[in-house]
């Protein structure tokens, strides 16, 4: 990416001066993912990396809930996000008061919360999960009925894998809900592609897929299966980033862009490091409770 090189060099210099670690989610653009990040991966990988981080300063290239999660798991580090407005339709679909109301309606049922939520919602939960370990976390609750929030599509995937009764919320990812069965079938029939879908996709799209998994799990599956042609039914940068890792695989559209992930750019990463902004903080009382739910998730692992 020749046009990006001056920014990449300047960020590398600043990063060294500041002693910072840059963590980037799989949906970050290649010039960020490959160009400046020290740690890359799915939401679970970034949470694990934050919990184990030795650096004083973490720059989280992803959306706000990921930076909050990093701060909760690394309370003594400074966590910066290049754009505070990088949100998520799932995180904004539910409040802490909603979780309390659901608990009152379903007494005794544990609450498992997808990490795509605010710290305040995590603080009301028994355990968090990501798309990489939702099934394992729900099973670890040892309950016949679990309140699973807020992604109803991930929830129906987990219900189909576990047979456990799940109380769902009406949240969806605005990026993945747009994929259709027609697009999936078109990729398979027209291009003879295998289909790999994220569990935030609608259930009928997941049903068409050869593999359903988190963004890191997608890469691992390709490593094992090595198909000639694949359609990754997820955010567009996923294919862009994996193309470099698997040059022999042909990546077929469809894909959708996440407008929140795309708020992070090389210029605002540079500004973030040079001006030390925007710091993400979580009130102590919320962080203590949210950390318990996140640590339960980390103990279960992948
Ligand atoms: P992961 O599968 O990487 O956890 O991604 C979920 C997501 O949508 C992050 O925005
Ligand atoms: Fe949220 Fe979907 Fe964007 Fe991920 S891809 S940050 S779940 S809106």
Structural notes for this entry:
By secondary structure, the chain is an alpha/beta fold. The chain is built from 14 helices and twelve strands. The chain has three domains: 2-87 and 262-275, NadA-like (Rossmann fold), CATH 3.40.50.10800; 91-172 and 284-300, NadA-like (Rossmann fold, 3-Layer(aba) Sandwich); 176-257, NadA-like (Rossmann fold). The mean pLDDT is 97. Bound molecules: 1,3-dihydroxyacetonephosphate and iron/sulfur cluster. 1,3-dihydroxyacetonephosphate is lined by residues 26-27, 42-43, 130-131, 173, 200, 214-215.
Notable features of this structure?
alpha/beta; Rossmann fold; 3 domains; four-stranded parallel β-sheet; binds iron/sulfur cluster
């Amino acid at each position: 990416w020749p046009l990006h090189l001056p920014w990449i060099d300047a960020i590398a210099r600043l990063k060294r001066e500041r002693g910072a670690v840059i963590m980037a989610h799989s949906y970050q653009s290649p010039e960020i993912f490959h160009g400046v990040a020290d740690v890359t991966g799915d939401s679970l990988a970034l949470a694990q990396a934050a919990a184990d981080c030795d650096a004083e300063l973490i720059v989280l290239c992803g959306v706000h809930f990921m930076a909050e999660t990093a701060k909760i798991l690394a309370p003594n580090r400074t966590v910066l996000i290049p754009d505070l407005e990088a949100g998520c339709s799932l995180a904004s679909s539910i409040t802490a008061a909603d979780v309390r109301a659901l608990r009152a309606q379903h007494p005794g049922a544990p609450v498992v919360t997808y990490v795509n939520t605010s710290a305040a919602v995590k603080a009301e939960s028994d355990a968090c999960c990501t798309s990489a370990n939702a099934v394992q976390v729900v099973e670890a609750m040892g309950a016949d009925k679990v309140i699973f929030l807020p992604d109803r599509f991930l929830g129906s995937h987990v219900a189909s894998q576990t047979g456990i009764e799940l109380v769902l919320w009406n949240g969806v990812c605005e990026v993945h809900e747009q994929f259709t069965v027609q697009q999936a079938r078109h990729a398979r029939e027209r291009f003879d592609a295998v289909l790999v879908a994220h569990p935030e996709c609608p259930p009928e799209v997941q049903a068409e897929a050869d593999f359903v998994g988190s963004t890191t799990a997608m890469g691992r599956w390709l490593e094992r299966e090595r198909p000639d042609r694949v359609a990754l039914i997820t955010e567009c940068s996923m294919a862009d980033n994996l193309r470099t890792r698997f040059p022999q695989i042909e990546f077929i559209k469809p894909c959708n862009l996440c407008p929140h992930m795309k708020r992070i750019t090389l210029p605002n990463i540079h500004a973030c490091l040079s001006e030390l902004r925007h710091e993400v903080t979580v009130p102590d009382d919320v962080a203590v409770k949210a950390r318990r739910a996140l640590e339960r998730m980390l103990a279960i692992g992948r």
